[in-house]
Known about the structure:
The chain has helices spanning 2-10, 24-38, 98-104, 107-112, 114-119, 171-174, 176-179, 203-217, 274-296; strands spanning 42-43, 49-56, 63-71, 84-88, 92-95, 127-134, 158-159, 165-170, 187-192, 226-234, 259-262, 317-318. The protein starts with a helix and ends with a strand. The chain is 28% helix and 20% strand. By secondary structure, it is α+β, with helices and mostly antiparallel strands. This is Amine oxidase domain-containing protein.
Amino acid sequence: xxxxxxxxxxxxxxxxxxxxxxxxxxxxxxxxxxxxxxxxxxxxxxxxxxxxxxxxxxxxxxxxxxxxxxxxxxxxxxxxxxxxxxxxxxxxxxxxxxxxxxxxxxxxxxxxxxxxxxxxxxxxxxxxxxxxxxxxxxxxxxxxxxxxxxxxxxxxxxxxxxxxxxxxxxxxxxxxxxxxxxxxxxxxxxxxxxxxxxxxxxxxxxxxxxxxxxxxxxxxxxxxxxxxxxxxxxxxxxxxxxxxxxxxxxxxxxxxxxxxxxxxxxxxxxxxxxxxxxxxxxxxxxxxxxxxxxxxxxxxxxxxxxxxxxxxxxxxxxx
Length: 319
């Protein structure tokens, strides 16, 4: 919480966080897919990277990634690793979470590079997302706010140091296209992290504790009823922010010349979150552009990499 409040204090324009008007699949992921495919990219959905393919580059003498091994098909059982498909690559961006990157790093890299050894020292914390639908407007600060045919309340992502959920939002207010329901009220989405004390609790108890804390934060909502709820548990999610752990977070540029990392656990000036993941992706893109410009300006390189046009048969692969 201290990190986020320090950022808001220094960059006042960052204190207003706009959410999507509806579900992420429709309003964020779908436009991304269309953008990528329109430019010759190809997505391998639900395939999962099983290993990085590495070898020593004959020209530089340095180890490089020349492709990835992915599940042969989305219909294969998750435990069946007998057959994979190889996807060649000139450059790889590993945009995964902490458990994901720890599975992909070869053991030899940890022995050779402190960069990768430090990543293996990162720990994760469980996260629980609780959704609560009420019969009125929770973040509307006026007592007894009536239904008026529109959502009422605080249109922002909210943070609190006085509840077990570190951040929350009323999706009926922030993203009304898909989450506003006529005749119903707030749909609070509350993120509990670290969530170890809650993991063994049944959903009903988690909902009860979360509702009680909501009423403490918004006393004017104590007469409202929770009419629907949903609980999602992730055993491993965000990296554990503990004293001394920050120095283990990697930069986006790795010691392997054509491998870049992205993810909110990497070094960026925001917290471990979706917003932090986006910021890390931009930093990874910046590192790639800088390295390619250096390569293009190097007179010793006989055949510099040229950007492939959208019609090129060399498609960009997204997994």
